[in-house]
């Protein structure tokens, strides 16, 4: 049985720190950046729902089925933790295998293209495979969320299948869920791809 405990993961562009209610106001501000809760294909909490969503994630953490993070950009002027831009989690945790799903992720609209997403995925995948010893890491998304499906594919994850009429959206509509995974023997190639993307961004910023 692998114990999956709250931890802080620090990368080149982001810091992932254990979620707490202290992050509430900053997370509300991040969600307002792009009014993300209005996007039909996401599950971003509206400002008045943020406290309940934080509580929900922390209760799942208490049961051992989720490990939620708050995502912060690294302040380039100080090198320390800066602006809060969103949330992400290890979810559907199976401590016996161990196996995790990376999901329930959203970032402020202005942070898109900042390098935050590949850096966040590199941190979480590295921790899952190299520290927790996971033989597989899973991703799931709405069948109609083509942007998310393409982004997961770019990571190097392979599609396992589609769960038809799998769950209901907040509007009560049944959705099909696409399941992807990365296996431990695929991780070195996926890691190289993410590191290459971050190095390319670094070089462009220095040009």
What descriptors fit this protein?
207 residues, Aminopeptidase, 8-stranded mixed sheet, 8 strands, 33% helix
- The outline comes out as globular
The N- to C-terminal Cα distance equals 48 Å
What is the count of structural domains? 1
Can you write the helix and strand succession as a string?
EEHHEEEHEHEEH
Unreliable stretches: none
- CATH C-level class: Alpha Beta
Q: Beta fraction of the residues?
A: 25-35%
3D structure, described in words:
This protein has 207 residues and is an alpha+beta fold. It has a single domain, classed as Gcn5-related N-acetyltransferase (GNAT) (Aminopeptidase), CATH 3.40.630. The chain is 33% helix and 32% strand. The chain has 5 helices and 8 strands, in the order ββααβββαβαββα. The chain has an 8-stranded mixed beta sheet with strand order 1-2-3-4-5-6-8-7, with helices on both faces. Strand 7 and strand 8 (174-183) form a beta hairpin. It is globular and about 50 Å long. It starts with 8 loop residues before the first strand and ends with a helix. It is an enzyme of class 2 (transferase). One of its GO terms (molecular function) is transferase activity. InterPro entries: Acyl_CoA_acyltransferase, GNAT_dom.
Write the layout of secondary structure elements.
Elements lengths: L8 E2 L3 E5 L5 H9 L17 H14 L2 E9 L6 E14 L4 E9 L8 H16 L4 E7 L3 H10 L2 E11 L5 E10 L3 H20 L1
Parallel strand pairs: 5-6
Antiparallel strand pairs: 1-2, 2-3, 3-4, 4-5, 6-8, 7-8
Helix pairs in contact: 3-5
Question: TL;DR?
Answer:
This protein is α+β, with helices and mostly antiparallel strands and 207 residues long. It has helices at 24-32, 50-63, 116-131, 146-155, 187-206; strands at 9-10, 14-18, 66-74, 81-94, 99-107, 136-142, 158-168, 174-183.
């Amino acid at each position: 049985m692998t114990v999956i405990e709250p931890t802080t993961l620090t990368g080149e562009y982001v810091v992932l720190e254990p979620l707490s209610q202290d992050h509430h106001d900053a997370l509300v501000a991040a969600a307002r950046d792009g009014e993300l809760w209005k996007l039909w294909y996401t599950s971003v909490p509206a400002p008045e729902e943020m406290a309940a969503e934080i509580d929900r994630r922390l209760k799942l953490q208490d049961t051992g089925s989720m490990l939620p993070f708050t995502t912060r950009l690294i302040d380039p002027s100080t090198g320390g933790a800066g602006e809060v831009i969103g949330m992400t989690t290890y979810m559907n945790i199976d401590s016996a295998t161990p196996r995790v799903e990376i999901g329930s992720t959203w970032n402020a609209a202005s942070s898109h293209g900042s390098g935050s997403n590949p850096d966040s995925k590199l941190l979480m995948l590295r921790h899952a495979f190299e520290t927790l010893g996971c033989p597989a890491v899973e991703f799931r998304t709405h069948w109609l969320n083509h942007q998310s499906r393409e982004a997961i594919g770019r990571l190097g994850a392979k599609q396992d299948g589609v769960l038809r009429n799998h769950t209901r959206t907040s509007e009560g509509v049944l959705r099909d869920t696409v399941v992807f995974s990365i296996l431990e023997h695929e991780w070195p190639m996926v890691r190289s791809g993410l590191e290459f993307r971050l190095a390319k961004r670094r070089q462009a910023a220095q040009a």
